[in-house]
Fold these 4 entries.
Entry 1:
Amino acid sequence: MIRYQFLRFPEGKAKALTFSYDDGCIEDPRLSDMLSAHGLKGTFNLTGNAIRGKNALSKEVVVSKFLDRGHEIAVHGLNHRAEGNIRPIEGIRDVLDCRLELEERYEMIIRGMAYPDSGIRQFTNVPGYETVRHYLSELDIAYARTLGADNDSFDLPTDWLCWMPTCHHDQPKIFEWAEKFLELDVNAQYGSARQPRLFYIWGHAFELRLKDNWDHMERICETFAGRDDVWYATNIEIHDYVEAYRSLRYSADGRRICNPTLLTVWFDVDKTLYSIAPGETIFIDK
Ligand SMILES: [Zn+2]
């Protein structure tokens, strides 16, 4: 009898790391250089100012520094307005206008988002989170990153439209939590503690300039870089991979599994690693 099955990231890795940086500021290319130099990947959340304001990142910079390196660009509201503080129709417009403009400019499909400003941390002109959640899903936003509850649980989100990061880069415990994350041998854990783990860091690159702590960011990158058991991915890559895993089809006893998605999906069944290619069906002989 199969006892537990857990997602494993590509190549069977049990852990993943991602970054999320907001506002499309002029310091972003330097951060991109730093992440890429260490083999790390992240998501840059762009606003109207980043697209066409006074300090806008040029199309060439966005393409060469973000897209060509495999980083993601995502929606951050055309006018950077907090969904919890504006009427739904205004929130819909801010998200949709940002999405339309980014997609037209970069000729791609953009489904990721980070909540601007205070996001969904307070509700003054909206009944509550469910209203925002409903319209974001109608706008085909696949995930939206929130903030304000740093923690070291390293869990994958259960609600993509309320994706809580592990911490901001200035979280005082970041290196303590990084050590806990990196030293954890997920596959050696007992029973239900063998779930995959994610470390998710967010911030603004301009904070690194204001605090003059680029060396701190460099140390974060060095700490996490070069680990064989960590998948370095953008936010949308993690979302799409986890959703592919959740789309697997099973026989009633869970032993015959079909992968109807376009991604090769990896998982662990009672300490045996399996992968299923797109369109493939496998039988778990346990
Ligand atoms: Zn912002």
Entry 2:
Amino acid sequence: MHFEPTLEFAREMDHNDPLKAFRQQFYIPQINGKKAIYLCGNSLGLQPKSLEGFLKQELNDWKNLGVEGHVHAQNPWMYYHHSFAGPLSRLVGAHEKEVSAMNALTVNLHILLASFYRPAGKKVKILVEAQLFPSDYFVALSQIEQYLRLSGRHDFVAEDAILQIYPRKREYFVRNEDVIRFIDQHQDELALVLLGAVNYYNGQWFDMESITKAGHKAKAIVGFDLAHAIGNVPMQLHDWEVDFATWCSYKYLNSGPGGPSGIFVHESHLNNPDTPQLKGWWGHEETTRFNMELNFIPAHGADRWQMSNVSVLSLAAHKAALTITDQASLTALREKSIKLTAYLEYLIDLWTADYLHIITPRNPDKRGCQLSLLTQGNGKQLFDTITANGVIADWRNPNVIRIAPTPLYNSFEDVFQFAAFIKDALT
Ligand SMILES: Cc1ncc(COP(=O)(O)O)c(C=O)c1O
């Protein structure tokens, strides 16, 4: 890729960007009356301008129809979640019946581990990555604790049943061959592999296919937290035979703070009578759900993991946002994302290499849009300076700045301005 460190070059790239019109569909936050340089889509995506209209539709139907809205709203609430099967399955590479929108991410991790963490004998351990998101660790730990309580076993403690895989000395992310070897070495004790597909801290995108294969060879179940992967990197969960996955929609899917999560369960587990699950009335087969009988008939596909009726207001926001992502198409988004992040990498290396060290993999196949920058010296001061200049990014203690140029609404000019602010702040 040919790049130049000039504003003219960045503007030329924007001019030639086939996705440039999508930026206009989002509200860009303001700082001191000026549009911010928003590079925090890995934390909270921006608000689509169309979202209000989608919400108003449901507010009006609720106002005018009350409970009748469940069947007579323009988009009947009872079936509202059906409209997500298409867009979500395209984003994660699944069959429509393998995905469902529901709950929140941590809740879904618990629900899925209730189905897929099946310890037995020596095989009780869960493999997670180092520097994983704490919620995932808490879920794994509490599921193991629950198993210990219910089984009455006392031959191990929960903390010892979590295996964390670390990068090699003086390296910042885990080599794929090390993950594969680790799984192989621990196959006698491994019940489950649970990784953040894209690690939230260093931005590493794991090789999900080979890890899934290795996990299955070790007779372990393999699941992924897709919080930082969905809408960011292309996946083929069905073909890769991933057992389960779950995500949130408030990062790269722009569905608003606390927006609905979703799940993927591989076809091979659907309707398998040996797949245990926590049940609720909303997971009951749709046409007979309101008969209110006590024999549980599972709904079609992944919908059977639903327990409660889903918040239609937050689904409406989700729908508004997903419509835009679907229009842009993940293929085109990824194509732009690779260039946008490579431009950021180029400018950081050119201008600030003495002070900022990129700890995200250099290979675009091993990362999404995010670069994590390890700072030397007083990194927080640098971060505060760029924030005062109108940059919204993310600081992680003790010394990392996370930058996520998001292809749906970020421009090459955003990336240029950010790098130029950093350069100025350092000279
Ligand atoms: C990787 C990862 N896992 C889990 C969570 C927790 O998400 P939630 O609060 O939606 O359960 C987050 C939140 O940012 C995350 O980034």
Entry 3:
Amino acid sequence: MEQEKAPLYEAVSKYIKRKMIPFHMPGHSQGKGAPRILKKLFGEKFFDFDLTEVSGLDYLHYAQGVIREAENLASKLYGTESTIFLINGTTAGVHAMILDSVKENEKIIIGRNSHRSVIGGILLARAKPVFVEPEFNEEFGIITNLTVEEIEKAIKENPDAKVLLVTTPNYYGLQGRVKDIIDLGHKYGLRVLIDEAHGAHFPFNEKFPKSAIYLGADLVTQSAHKTLPTLTQTSFLHIPSKSVNVDRVEQVLSIIESSSPSYIFMTALDVARREMALHGKEMWDRAIEVAEYAREKISALQGFKVITEKIVNGIDIYAFDPIKLTINVEDLGYSGFEFEHFLNKNGIEIELADLQNVLLFITVGTSKRDIDILLSVLRKVQPKKEKNKIKMERTPKAPPFAMMPFETLKKDFEVIPLKEAKGRVSWGIVAPYPPGIPVLAPGMVIDDDCIDFIDEVFKYGGLVQGSVRQGSEIAIRVVKGV
Ligand SMILES: Cc1ncc(COP(=O)(O)O)c(C=O)c1O
């Protein structure tokens, strides 16, 4: 079977066996010069694999040999026209999709729930963002997805927009009406880009939502590293559609990504693809079973609530990804941030906390035993006497832009207390992290709602990227003199 092959892994392994004398990058010379602590930490073999583009191992940005073979196998598995390996995460995929699709000063319609990489891509492309407000689930206090109606309104109000970029599923595994959204964009002649960072596993089990790859999207990017058994920073850019010129996309990627791609990363992608092709279905069956077990047991505990399939409403939530385990701790009186701290102290590391919830990822590596340990920690929780009355608010509506994001790059900034920032223009991206959804993008006029929202997240222990800590207060960077 073709998918049994792992061309890149095989080629690198064969190369290592030749025991070549290295007179090339990287500077550790296949481990011979590597610091001892690193050798101890990673093992000798690790450095053997950390090759550069040596003879016979192809070039990521001019792939014609084993890297192309590996990408072609990924493309066949995912059922795309082309699939390209990314070594700078989905951030690179998002940047490439935008840079390939929108020209300077052109409008791109995006969700207010977009990841910071979308703002970064728009800044690089010198494009104009038009925001669509997503829906909000009051029960769990989480942003969900864009609706077809809101997107259509934005398209009608901006008939000169050329591109629609939609982020779905969200971090919590809630997917919007992707097919209808893609069809809508195409009806109005827009190119449709999908940030499916959290959906690289979707094709491998029928219980997962359907990937946008099969629903007509022009370009789809996925963080392989978020859910598949591969290494951090490894992602895919999928080109499902013949309407996209692959050469152009590759040209963009060769500009924005490193010219020294890690063979450890690329080999990891090759092997993870093989793993999914051969064993994906059973692996995910097991992971889903573990997640269902966790949901059943946790929801039976006093004070805990979990997101289940029942959250699907067919409007802003069309499908639920069962490997995402969202635990709501509101009734126990804790904020999600406080609860994360408690879990951490008890040896449990989670993916994300917000004001009301903690989010745990179940992967092909999670066992029922892990869940049992989690349960034993959860059983220790004492409800707080003084209840946390804080409810997550929806991200405030996008304030207007005083200047386009790219224009701020040419401006100086000054740091001022957040509380004094009303009416000033944000210089940076200000985003609670995770999930990395910017409350402020460069060029936005800061309003009271944004100030209150950021202050709230900060006050309750959330990390706000792009802010500056000044003792117990929070400050931000604003454009100087504006
Ligand atoms: C929705 C979304 N898009 C894009 C990204 C960026 O992905 P990466 O970390 O692979 O660069 C993330 C990361 O969290 C994300 O959540």
Entry 4:
Amino acid sequence: MEKVLYGKPLAALIRARIKELIAEHGLAPRMRLIQTGNDPAASYYVQNIVSSGAKLGCEVQLASLPANVGQAELLSLIAAANADPQTHGIMLQKPLPRQIDDALAGAGIDPAKDIDCLNPVNLGRILLGEDSLLPATALAVLCTLGHYRVPVAGRHVVIIGRSAIVGKPLANMLLWKKPWANASVTVCHSRSANLEELTRGADILVAALGQAEFVQPEMIKNNCVLIDVGINEQKRADGKPGYVGDIDYNACYGKALAITPVPGGIGSVTTSLLFLNLLKAALAAQGINKTVDDFLDFIFKE
Ligand SMILES: NC(=O)c1ccc[n+]([C@@H]2O[C@H](COP(=O)([O-])OP(=O)(O)OC[C@H]3O[C@@H](n4cnc5c(N)ncnc54)[C@H](OP(=O)(O)O)[C@@H]3O)[C@@H](O)[C@H]2O)c1
């Protein structure tokens, strides 16, 4: 196993698979990307999605709504995208403004077009071990483990973070009865007692809490695999903005068997998987239903 689990080579393989499938099926996948307000980090991510789509041959239609958009207006925009047969996937860029109910907005997206997995139907399918449109970040963690041949089955995976978009779906996907899952899982959060005791028990530790360099060497055991989902903006010595993860990379490197960098780790894989979801939705609209194993057989082979 390699020591540094880089995301870019894996993202390149996923993008190549997407292009291959688009050509094979003559598809014109189209995403409706809805941004509310102008949060700089969200705008950066949105521009990244738009340019990635162009490179992949997917159309991304961006709807930029003001920060004071009302719930009814947002829901009617989502309803219009649901009803449009040329739109295969809908993505709602977070964070949403305070006046918007996140759960209502997510539930408003047609489950068949819910490429960011916000609809409770898709989250419920994950709980039941059924294939669905899967949350890209959680899937990026599993793809990274699979690609770098990190043994997962039977291992103890500890996740710090219980959000509906990362920690909870990832925990449930790790429990799937699949050769690339079948893990024993512990999920920790801000109220967990003896957090360090729990994290020291991890064969694989996933940090998804949004606290810069939170995980320190005394919190991990020797030769554990460290997966860093966190992306935290931090001013560099030269005053320019930089990014660090939820794991103190330099401090933990020596003790770890393998580690994902930030940037250049999980985040680099996530956007390609969002487009894989778009492709999956576009194929399903043509009556072609592919599972995650069909799409990612080159990663999840036994
Ligand atoms: N790489 C990617 O593609 C990608 C995608 C999405 C998010 N992210 C990043 O991943 C991180 C998590 O995102 P998120 O949306 O899941 O965050 P979130 O919704 O804020 O959830 C954070 C979770 O971490 C827990 N937590 C916070 N502080 C903690 C502490 N001191 N000890 C233990 N648990 C603690 C919280 O516990 P409570 O539930 O008790 O509050 C919560 O469950 C962020 O850095 C975000 O930027 C990366």
